[in-house]
Amino acid sequence: MLDFSLVQNFIPFMVKAAWITLLLSVISIVAGLILGLFVALMKISKYKILVWIADLYLWVIRGTPLLVQLFLVYFGLPQIGIEFSPFTSAAIALGINAGAYIAEIYRGGILAVSKGQIEAAEALGMKYPTIMKKIILPQALKVSIPSLGNQAIIMLKDSSLASLVTVSELMMVSQRYASTNYAFIEFYIVAALFYLLMTTLFTFILNKIEKRMAVSEQ
């Protein structure tokens, strides 16, 4: 018989852990958005060396598990004298991983902009950086919003892997209290509800952004 009264006294600690999960996710997503934009621009660059670096980054990050990347940052870098806290290590690994997928989302959005608009801007004497800033990127962002939203939700759920490098986020705290109280189902169900609440919040915010951008187009 399930007994959720065992979880009741630990809810405040789980709320605090959920906040850490949310903070880690937001930092990682922001880092991924910035990194992804740079990589996408490198990918479409006319300079072969930048394209090659972007391709290498995408090949390595998308072709290896996030868990391995996380362990390399947390356990591997100290071997060469670079050491970060568990939270910072997790944020770096998650941000680097997100950047690879977000770069491809951006690139798809950029390629979706019609060449006619670019040619018209060039005919008016606009330089490429200005065209990219004022014409291409705003439209690419609008097209990319749904996919970026999905990636944000994926990152929120993937943040649970940070528990494996001792970050006191929701999953680690849930595991700790579940094993102490021998109430694994109860604690994991409550943890799942917290994740569901956070992903619902992300979805709500992203839907609002998408609707606002759609209105601005009209």
UniProtKB/TrEMBL annotation:
<protein>
    <submittedName>
        <fullName>Amino acid ABC transporter membrane protein (PAAT family)</fullName>
    </submittedName>
</protein>
<keyword id="KW-0472">Membrane</keyword>
<keyword id="KW-0812">Transmembrane</keyword>
<comment type="similarity">
    <text>Belongs to the binding-protein-dependent transport system permease family.</text>
</comment>
<feature type="transmembrane region" description="Helical">
    <location>
        <begin position="20"/>
        <end position="44"/>
    </location>
</feature>
<dbReference type="InterPro" id="IPR010065">
    <property type="entry name" value="AA_ABC_transptr_permease_3TM"/>
</dbReference>
<dbReference type="GO" id="GO:0006865">
    <property type="term" value="P:amino acid transport"/>
</dbReference>
<dbReference type="InterPro" id="IPR000515">
    <property type="entry name" value="MetI-like"/>
</dbReference>
<keyword id="KW-1003">Cell membrane</keyword>
<keyword id="KW-0813">Transport</keyword>
<feature type="transmembrane region" description="Helical">
    <location>
        <begin position="182"/>
        <end position="206"/>
    </location>
</feature>
<dbReference type="GO" id="GO:0022857">
    <property type="term" value="F:transmembrane transporter activity"/>
</dbReference>
<keyword id="KW-1133">Transmembrane helix</keyword>
<keyword id="KW-0029">Amino-acid transport</keyword>
<dbReference type="InterPro" id="IPR035906">
    <property type="entry name" value="MetI-like_sf"/>
</dbReference>
<dbReference type="InterPro" id="IPR043429">
    <property type="entry name" value="ArtM/GltK/GlnP/TcyL/YhdX-like"/>
</dbReference>
<dbReference type="Pfam" id="PF00528">
    <property type="entry name" value="BPD_transp_1"/>
</dbReference>
<feature type="domain" description="ABC transmembrane type-1">
    <location>
        <begin position="18"/>
        <end position="206"/>
    </location>
</feature>
<dbReference type="GO" id="GO:0043190">
    <property type="term" value="C:ATP-binding cassette (ABC) transporter complex"/>
</dbReference>
<feature type="transmembrane region" description="Helical">
    <location>
        <begin position="56"/>
        <end position="77"/>
    </location>
</feature>
